[in-house]
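Internal ticket #5521
Category: modeling
Description: The requester needs a full-assembly model to guide mutagenesis choices. All entity lines are attached below as received. Residue total reported by intake: 408.
Assigned to: D.W.
Attached entities:
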Amino acid sequence: MSQHAPTSGHAPMSSQTSMAAASAATGAVTSALLPGFDNPVDDAQQVFRAALDAFAHPGMLQALPAASVGRPAGLSPAMTALLLTLADSDTPVWLPADIGSEARAFLRFHCGCPLVDNAAQATFVCVPMGDTPPSLAQCAQGDPAYPDRSATLLLELAALSNDAAPLSATVSDNGGDTYTLRGPGIETTQTLLASGLPNDFRAQWRANNAGFPLGVDLLLTAGDRFCALPRTTHLED
Amino acid sequence: MNTQISSEADVTGNANVERAAWMRILALAGPDALDAAWDRLTRDGEVPAYRFLRKPESGMTMVRARAGGTGAQFNLGEVSVTRCAVVLDVGGDVDGVAGVAYLQGCGARGARHAERAAVLDALMQLPTWQARVQASVIAPLDADLAARAAREVAETAQTRVEFFTMVRGED
């Protein structure tokens, strides 16, 4: 960027900023891009607060406090808002190969996050509805000295509920499953109904528990609601 | 960073170079000069409606420099920067045209500057508007910029000191 163009006479300086890369990248902006949050700062703070609450109360559903104005094809409101809040240039994001270019352009423009093809390199592994998630063991598990350098999976599910009764009718059709959660942040047990998790999810999650302090954390989203499953939460059989 | 820019420019030919030139002029324009130019442009008719892709937002960015243009890179300091992106609603089947602005400055003034610069960047990409914007905005601002640079060079030249060494005669 030439904003610090040298005023001649003094020692000439070549100046460049990280903005130069940013403006070069936006030079190729596709005009079909959608806007992000209406008030980026306030909305991201509210969503971040909801995400904190979700991780403090594993399995308890949170309503989305603010949704982004634009909704790229393939991403649900909750997933879009969480990515807008959490992803930035330091957090590589993995998306399934078949997701449209609209969602990729949206994330690249608003989050500036690198998009990677290898799930093991991603900080956020983002799986929209209908896509097969990579196995938990495939994702970054963190380092014994830095367990926080692990991946967080964002999984879009057909339905999520804390209440066994009203959902059971719809869930029984598409293989919904009731999970009883136990662990830090849960006073006794927490019931979670989720439909659309992989068939071997219980085994995968047990293995994820066994690797503590390493392991991945989960954010489950369904439409405009979401909940968290941190690696400390256990599933009862 | 530089290689990335040059490779992009190679792909799209001179379009990026030209666009970079007018984006530079819009970013470096004085706020008053830009306001005057905007008034000149809108006197003949309203600009098309537009929506924000990214509202004006300000932040800090590190300016890095090289002593003498060749030395090791060092961090010169942080400057406040405002950026904005808009999409023009051209109507019809045509997708909107996106305009982007990054400029030094902040606050309400920087925000208005960035918004207008982004709209003008988008208008410059429309064949129907390009000549008009070029004539009533870009050309005058470019002339302002050149005049300002020339004035600064002249002022600096007054303080120029020629150093030379007296050779003492051998005795």
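Resolution: model delivered.
Comment from assignee: Chain A touches chain B through 37 residues (CB under 8 Å).
Ticket closed.
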